[in-house]
Structure formats: structure tokens, C-alpha cells
Specification:
single chain, 417 residues, alpha+beta, six-stranded mixed sheet, six-stranded antiparallel barrel, 4 helices, 23 strands, 33% strand
């Protein structure tokens, strides 16, 4: 007995299988593309790379700066009194000694003040002389009056004594006796009053004369000060040195305190330098520095640190701690190595342009065969003009790419060809 075979039934008819297979292939490709990270691997030309080796020698903690030679001291030329320039006694570049006249000024208002002060002084002197003469005349009159009263007291005393004697012998009346007594007592009282008045007058006169004398002395002092101001119209150098700048013209009006030039103190020199603000917390007074000139090494010390930062840099001043170059001149440039700390062993890598992209937070490290480089996190500490100190992330003997990363800063792996 034959069995009837029924055809197999599929979820999808055979005629659609090719379409289904193609769809599955497309989905798989899309899924692979979605999960694959092509941006993480990049092929680069080895010839365009700078490769450095990680080392562990002694690290010199210093920074190199360009130093400019300037005089040890620059003194500003400023007149104490204003006026019009009538003569330039010295020119720029001239050597001067302390007290030498550099400029002569004229001030007509100051001349008028001197005349007025002298006139007031003469008037005050005349007043004092007239007052003293008046006081002397009054004193003579008072003394004459006192003498007269004194003689009157003596006369009244004799008259009283005479009347008293007569009264005792009952040769005169009581009224005559009392009248002589009262006249005498009145003369005595008047003499006492005139003595008191003379004393008060002398005291008052002395006080007035003393006050006027003090006023006169003050006016004399004022005249002297005004004359000293006149002398200050000659602008003088306050130090021995060289005129470095004199920015004035004949006939120019100059105000008191206005800067018209400078005098350079050539007794010694210092070195000025600009340092990157990255080092501002590490630079302080007393740090040592050095530079080489004509095969010799010269030592410096940081004398002053200026806290103001301009355009990412701050200024420091060095002074010499030993000899100076024989041919040292203002304006010369020396390349100074400023020692920031002690030298000690450290893991280092050569400086490179990679730092501008990574900020020292990561770097590409080559594998053992040198065919690939992988991104790795690191931590950089100190730096000098040649090397970075690596605190974490690298070991001595490894090799790293130190050239710029702009073209592959988003990649994780580099294939070197």
C-alpha cells in the first residue's frame, strides 16, 4: 500500500530564501560597522614622528631665561620746581657727578614771590623797630612819672611828720594834721599803682616784642625757603653716573615732579629677565642662577621678584655674586639658567610639541617591536628646557612619541609604517 508523501512546509517559501539571506548579511555588516571603532586605530608614517626614550638620570631643575643687562640703579630726573627750560647744560650720554647741573629753568612767578616775601620782611622789620621805639618812649615817660610820684611821697611824708609833731604839741588843729596824713597816704597808694602799672606795661611790651620777633624770624625763614626754591630751578644730578635719557627741549614748560630723563648708576649692573607665569610660585628671592660668556661661568642671585604678570610673564632681577664679564655693557643679552631646585634622579622624557595637545596627561607609548603605539595616561611634574619629569605612567627604557598629536589626538592606537 503506497503512502502519500506530503510536501514539507517552511515558515518562508524557498523562493524567498535568497532575499532573506541577503537581508541577514546586510544586518550583520551593519551591526559590525556599528560596533567597530575605526577612529581608534590610525596608520601614520614613522618618518614624520619624533620618538624619545624614557630615562632615569639626574634631573636638573632649572629654567632658561633671556636676561638683559641694565644699570644697578636708574634715578629719575625730575625738577622740584616747575618752570621753562632756558638751558640744557648736559646732553644724553654725558657722565655726571652728584650735584652737577643738568638743566636750568626759569620761573617768573617764583621771582615775584621772592620780591613779595622780601617786601613783607622789610615791612615787618620796620614795624618791629617802630614798635620798639614806641615802647622805649613809653617806658621813659612811665619812669619819669614814677620818679615824680616817688618825690611826691617823700614831700608828703615830711609834711605829715611836721604836722604830726605840731599836733603832738597842740600847736595846730586836728584838721591840719588829718589833711597832711591823708595827703601822704594818697601819695603812697598812687606810687604803688604806678609801680604795678609799670610792671604790667613792661610785661606786655616784652610779650608783644617777642611775638613780633618770632613773626619776623618766621618771615626770614620764608624768604630763605623761597630763595631755596629759586636755587632748585637748577636741576641737578643726585648720583654719579651717566645720563641715559633727557627728553626736554628749550622753551618747554616743565611741571614739578615731571619726569624729564634718567641717570644710570654705572657703579654696578644687574640682569633683568622675563619668566613664564608657570613658574611664578617657584621663583623667590635668593635663588641661584648662572650663565656662560667667553668660556667662563658667572654666578647670579635673584634680588627681586615682581608679582605683576603681563602677557603671561613676570619680571625678576638678578645681581652678580662674583665676577662680572669684562666687556659688560647696558643692553647686552645673556642666556641665564635659573636653578629652581636640587638635582636628583627622576624618570624623564624629552620635551616635545605633544604637550600642547595632551597637557601632559597622556602620551603614545611604542610597543616592544616599535610597530604600534598605544595611548597611555601619565602625570608630569617638573620641567626644564630639555626634559619633562614623569611622576606616573612610564618606566625607564620605554619609547614614546613626543611630536605633535594634532592629526591623531582622537586615536587610541597608532600603526607605524
Amino acid at each position: 500500500m503506497d503512502i502519500e508523501l506530503k510536501p514539507k512546509r517552511y515558515f518562508l517559501p524557498k523562493k524567498y530564501w535568497p532575499w532573506a539571506g541577503g537581508a541577514l548579511f546586510v544586518v550583520a555588516v551593519l551591526a559590525w560597522l556599528a560596533t567597530a571603532d575605526f577612529a581608534s586605530t590610525l596608520r601614520v608614517d614613522r618618518c614624520g614622528l619624533s620618538i624619545g626614550e624614557v630615562k632615569n638620570p639626574r634631573f636638573d631643575d632649572y629654567v632658561s631665561v633671556d636676561g638683559s643687562v641694565v644699570p644697578i640703579q636708574v634715578v629719575q630726573i625730575s625738577p622740584e620746581e616747575g618752570g621753562v627750560v632756558v638751558e640744557k647744560v648736559l646732553e644724553e650720554g654725558a657722565h655726571v657727578s652728584k650735584g652737577d647741573v643738568i638743566l636750568r629753568l626759569n620761573n617768573s612767578n617764583l621771582d615775584l614771590e621772592i620780591l613779595n616775601a622780601e617786601s613783607e620782611l622789610a615791612e615787618k622789620q620796620n614795624m618791629l623797630r617802630n614798635t620798639q621805639l614806641s615802647f622805649e618812649q613809653d617806658n621813659l615817660n612811665n619812669r619819669n612819672e614814677a620818679l615824680q610820684l616817688k618825690m611826691e611821697v617823700k614831700a608828703k611824708r615830711r609834711a605829715f611828720d611836721h604836722q604830726a609833731a605840731l599836733y603832738d604839741e597842740e600847736l595846730n588843729s586836728r584838721e591840719e594834721y588829718l589833711k597832711a596824713k591823708e595827703d601822704y597816704e594818697l601819695a603812697v597808694q598812687k606810687n604803688e599803682l604806678i609801680s604795678q602799672r609799670l610792671a604790667k606795661t613792661r610785661e606786655l611790651n616784652r610779650s608783644q616784642v617777642a611775638q613780633m620777633t618770632a613773626d619776623l624770624a618766621s618771615m626770614r625763614k620764608n624768604v630763605e625757603l623761597v630763595r631755596e626754591r629759586k636755587a632748585k630751578l637748577d636741576v641737578r644730578s643726585t648720583i654719579d653716573g651717566e645720563i641715559g635719557l633727557l627728553d626736554v627741549e628749550l622753551g618747554q614748560s616743565i611741571s614739578p615732579g615731571q619726569k624729564v630723563g634718567v641717570v644710570n648708576d654705572l657703579s654696578d649692573y644687574k640682569v633683568e629677565a622675563q619668566v613664564d607665569e608657570h613658574y611664578i610660585d617657584r621663583v623667590h628671592v635668593g635663588l641661584q642662577a648662572s650663565f656662560e660668556q667667553s668660556g667662563k661661568t658667572y654666578r647670579l642671585r635673584v634680588r627681586k621678584v615682581f608679582p605683576e604678570v603681563r602677557e603671561g610673564r613676570f619680571r625678576i632681577d638678578f645681581v652678580f655674586t662674583g665676577g662680572r664679564p669684562k666687556n659688560i655693557r647696558t643692553g647686552q643679552t645673556y642666556y641665564v639658567d635659573l636653578q629652581l631646585g636640587e638635582s636628583k634622579k627622576a624618570i624623564i622624557i624629552p620635551k616635545g610639541t605633544f604637550y600642547s595637545v595632551t597637557g601632559g596627561k597622556w602620551i603614545f607609548v611604542l610597543d616592544g617591536e616599535g610597530r604600534k603605539a598605544y595611548r597611555r595616561k601619565i602625570r608630569i611634574g617638573r620641567q626644564n628646557p630639555e626634559y619633562y619629569e614623569v611622576l606616573e605612567g612610564l618606566e625607564p627604557g620605554e619609547r614614546v612619541i613626543v611630536s605633535g598629536y594634532e592629526a591623531y589626538k582622537d586615536s587610541e592606537t597608532l600603526v607605524l609604517e
